[in-house]
Amino acid sequence: MANMMNVAKNSAIPSWQQELQSAFTDVNELLAFLELKTDRLDDYYNAAQDFPLLVTLSYAERIKKADWNDPLLRQVLPHPDELTSHPQYLSDPVGDANASVSPGLIHKYHGRVLLITTGACAIHCRYCFRREFPYSNNSAHPSKIDSIKEYLSKNPDVNEVILSGGDPLTLNDTKLSRLFEFLSSNTQIERIRIHTRLPIVLPSRITDQLLNTLASVNQKVIMVIHANHPNELNTDVYEALASLKDINVTLLNQTVLLKGVNDHADTLIKLSNRLFECHTLPYYLHLLDKVNGALHFDSTLQHAKKVYALVQTKLPGYLVPKLVHEEAGEPNKTLLQLNL
Ligand SMILES: *Cc1c(COP(=O)(O)O)cnc(C)c1O
Ligand code: SF4
């Protein structure tokens, strides 16, 4: 937060960008803000070395003070356990490198291409499966739009473009509107999907300007947000999602099942109910991808199935997300069978 004073003076920068620039990046500052003390500070710093801490103030304010076990804190605080390696935990567990068809473009599933728009996020989720993704040579830089265009014209059955990353909404409005103009003018594309965590971790990103850009797109716009715990969905998040709903964006949520965060039926039930209040339907509940450093988030498969079965007995079908896992080389996300 050291540069907050400087940034705040520059009113030309939108407030969401100022908030992003002044996000927590230092372990000790975050711990002090949360009134937490440790004599293992060095271990926490070591854990942050390869994948630094990053948390917005807005998200940090939803973390309970003086509670090491807070489910939101656990998602963002580098943990010494991350340094434990395991032979089954890899740097590209979902096989993205193999499915990359042109820089920044991943075509893994029928009809849909995924565009890596940027490597930047507004938060660093410790369990992220892209934490080791080589973004610098794999982002869809504007200069690569031509090769994407060419790929689409050679693959006429692609009718949906998924903007992913990183987080596409960390791009500034100029870059985003250029991208949406390009997509909107392409009649081959019937749906534009945005995979983003920003409505959750930086709800101020949903500005009038962004809403105008999205409302002006010719195609249907779907936004798949990423919330893992009901405590994440505060009033600011509610308002951001309500404004997206008002311009007819279809809102879906994906969750990652995380040990010590949301691997209890009660938590997942509350999450689904709160999402529905926020005009958002649960879409996927992902089993953890086995990425280096994420071993301490792994619930057993048996536990996942038990929790999921319980959730199913308590909620209407439309509030039960699909329990899936991503397996490299498969033509779709793999649905988990409870009775295996
Ligand atoms: C998950 C994913 C998609 C989208 O899959 P849906 O089942 O349509 O949500 C597309 N491309 C890639 C590379 C993915 O990982
Ligand atoms: S916001 Fe998404 S891409 Fe970014 S670190 Fe979190 S899980 Fe990974």
Structure description:
The N and C termini lie far apart (50 Å). It is built from 14 helices and ten strands. Strands 1-2-3-4-5-6-7-8-9-10 form a ten-stranded mixed beta sheet. Helices cover 34% and strands 14% of the residues. The model has no long low-confidence stretch (mean pLDDT 91). The longest helix is centred in the last third of the chain and has 14 residues, at 301-314. The chain is an alpha/beta fold. Iron/sulfur cluster is lined by residues 121, 123-125, 128, 130, 166-167, 197, 226. The site of pyridoxal-5'-phosphate has 8 residues, from strand 2 and strand 3.
Offer a concise description of the structure.
The protein is an alpha/beta fold. Helices cover 34% and strands 14% of the residues. The protein has a 10-stranded mixed sheet.
Task: State the main characteristics.
globular, 340 residues, binds pyridoxal-5'-phosphate, ten-stranded mixed beta sheet, single chain
> Order of helices and strands, N to C?
HHHHHHHEEEHEHEHHEHEHEHEE
Helicity level = 25-40%
**What does the overall shape look like?**
globular
- Structural class estimated from helices and strands: alpha/beta
How would you characterize the largest beta sheet? 10 strands, mixed
What order do the helices and strands come in, and which of them pair?
Elements: H1 4-9, H2 15-21, H3 27-33, H4 41-47, H5 57-60, H6 71-76, H7 96-99, E1 100-102, E2 105-109, E3 112-116, H8 145-154, E4 160-164, H9 173-184, E5 191-195, H10 198-201, H11 208-215, E6 220-226, H12 235-246, E7 250-256, H13 265-277, E8 281-286, H14 301-314, E9 322-325, E10 334-335
Parallel strand pairs: 3-4, 4-5, 5-6, 6-7, 7-8, 8-9
Antiparallel strand pairs: 1-2, 2-3, 9-10
Helix pairs in contact: 9-11, 13-14
